[in-house]
Fold these 4 entries.
Entry 1:
Amino acid sequence: MRQFEFKMLSIVIPVYNEELYLEELVSKVVSQSLPGGLDRELILVNDASQDATWGVMQTLPRKFPEAKFHIINKTVNEGKGAALRDGFTRIRGDLVIIQDADLEYDPADYPKLLQPILDGKADVVYGSRFIGEPHRVMYYWHQLANNILTMLSNMLTNLNLTDMEVCYKVFTREVIDQIKIKSPRFGVEPEITAKIARMRINGKRLRVYETGISYAGRTYEEGKKIGWKDAVSAIFQIIRFRFTD
């Protein structure tokens, strides 16, 4: 299959209170081989962490000199959406992937997430935790809420995703340059999805692919942050961005 010409992958990593996991995550990102001869840059956004995350983040360029880093330190905690918005302003790559800092998602999945775009089949690729790959068995009510949010999003966007709330989303630079994030917190997931569904490039809808990924979810004791209030907010954002830009 033909490999389209992409030179660099920008990996945007919003970070909040991840002093225990950040260096390990970055090690996995840096060591992961990429298809198509892609170079990579890491854009880390510290969202005013209350632990030693910022100190750890400052040591990473020295510990991983083979990688290109952009590190941003926010002094006010605004949420994942705001961190991504700030990170997107720094990207230089032809492709962009969102990576959480908590080790729930494995960078070993990068090649299969990137391949549909490299093959010229897709403009956007979503991972999915629910289509056959290994995953840690976690909270029933979380999965039910995720299913409901994905179904509601699908109804209003006319997409047929299985996991709208997934972290792993890959975009071409042409797509990401047209997404202006407004949701400061976890409502960014339905916002991005709604905007992708409405976007046209050269008069055509975006080609959206989905691929199975592994998932090692955390408990609240292990640092999981998303809760029921975020689910309620997501419902509001799904409706809001279906009818507004």
Entry 2:
Amino acid sequence: MKVGEAIAEILKREGVEIIFGYPVNHVLEAAAIAGIRPVIVRQERVGLHMADAMSRVSSGRRIGVFAMQHGPGSENSMGGVAQAYSESVPILVLPMGYARRLAHIDPNFNSVASMRTFTKSAEPITSPAEIANIFRRAFSRLRNGRGGPALVEIPVDLFAEEIPGPLVYEPAISARYGPDIADVRKAAAALVEAKHPVIYAGQGVHYARAWEPL
């Protein structure tokens, strides 16, 4: 199995049905062959906003995915990634990267180095053998804790390589956690006793789907 096929298979196992993208990024072709619908956009930031919307309207159950070309395409995406980070929206960002022998040569744009400060994680694929581990870490960060984008850079020279052996990948889990029950009782008592209660809640209520009655 080649690298592109392995990435597409991982996305399918994680429940991805749509991938937004701006060519050229070979993962878009691999995803289409695997049955994931590619939606091609005219400008990178627009594609980021579309992936952002998918994550928001599904309360993070369907992670928005955006793939773009290396160099200028990745540069154009920075604003959308930064906005998703500032608003705690989980998005998987898949920039193509320069070949590994050129990845750190100035002035080539390096997505991992440039976007590390406004992503939950930013990691390049350096070996086909590590693809499953890298994507599991990315999806674990997307599905747990405060929301935000996770970035996996795919060097262009990696697509033609084969992964060693069969793909071993289990989807990332979402850990459940909650507040101390004593604090919940205090908050509930304060609400019950209030004559004109007002709840000022952030989008964490949306992602937790906390609108259902107990």
Entry 3:
Amino acid sequence: MDTLPANAINPHAGTHPITADAAELEAARVAADRAVEEFPYFLERFGERARLFGASDGAWLATLHDREVDEIGREVLWLGSVLASRGMPRLLLERHLEVLHEELERAVPERAAFYAVLLNGASTLRQQRLSRLSEHDLRELDIAFASRVGSRWAERLPRMGAILVAAVADEAGGITSAVEKVLDWAGDREHFPAQWCDAVERTVADARARVRPG
């Protein structure tokens, strides 16, 4: 497989190899765009760097199709842990893998069987999350958060409640700084109104109360 250094498409990234295939690079870019549209948290917090890293991470993930399944799982868990420790819960990577799979399959359909490994990675992350908090809990607490913050904020930052709950699941799974790193931004009372911050704290507390023991 021909590769490029990641900083060829993202000046903030390192020199780790990413795909050099033009169709795969475009699919990674589109997937990154979709991810930031689905989760405006990315752009609100990290700005355009989020889109750039989404594309370069996706272009790296596209190179994993020739690895063994167990190795892919380890790589995905490693990346998920790195991102969660920087304020991006693993739910975001889980969803990114699903979207990236869709875009790669659309762009290069003849390699669809190879790209299926990305769904295995998403499944690994999902299993980790569900072992700590159920999908029902995530959805219920996400809805409750949106109700507490009001329609204006809920429309500006949709699924923020789910991000908070996912951070709690990551914390329970051993990423001890996962919640703290989200709260550094989402719980900042100088940046957000009291109603928002109260809802953030309540949602984290409610999620922690529902965590299943390991």
Entry 4:
Amino acid sequence: MLQSLLTGSISTFDLITILLRIPCILIALTVHEISHGYAAYKLGDPTAKALGRLDLNPIRHLDHFGTLCLLLFGFGWAKPVPINPLHFKRMKRDTAITAAAGPLSNFLLGFICALLSRLVAALSDSSFLLSLFRVSTLTDVAFTDILFLFFYIFSLLNFGLALFNLIPIPPLDGSRILFAFLPTNAYFAVMKYERFIMIGMLVLLWSGLVDVPLSGAINFLYSLGYNVFYLFPAL
């Protein structure tokens, strides 16, 4: 898709994909951040609630660059929900739980939508890829193909958002989970270099070096959710 945008050679398939990615991204990011905030609230920290971050309005949760990366590459990040660990009864444990809540919500959405795409495929007479690659106009696309593609894209984006944010580097969620296992002094020593580490991560992202392992993991998880019917023939 990135190559198509850069060259201007956007096909009908690319256009449909871009249009469907936008609501998928907005929903995935919103659920991700609300899950962080709600987990923190249930663990005793009212900061996110007080600042209006338990809001279904996706604009409150968008990080412009992270959203662009999610649109182009399929993995990115949202604007972090503010938390105050001093409100937690057990700081390290509750910080890790709060951090894990976002990716876990995306894993759940990813598997649900992979399963839904399988259900739609079972009701459709044609492969969505074959039909979409052959069309020349939007009116040539069947509703079931669009529905399949929506669930497919939504599933991949959720898996991408979850996996990328679990990378244990600041400021991603994985670094907050790592906090539960590192001595406090060691953790804050690493956090001093948060900005430089993130710049390095962005360089790797743009270089494409993280595409292969992340894309492989995303596709594996989607296949796992899609093929759950084959694991349970009674379904």
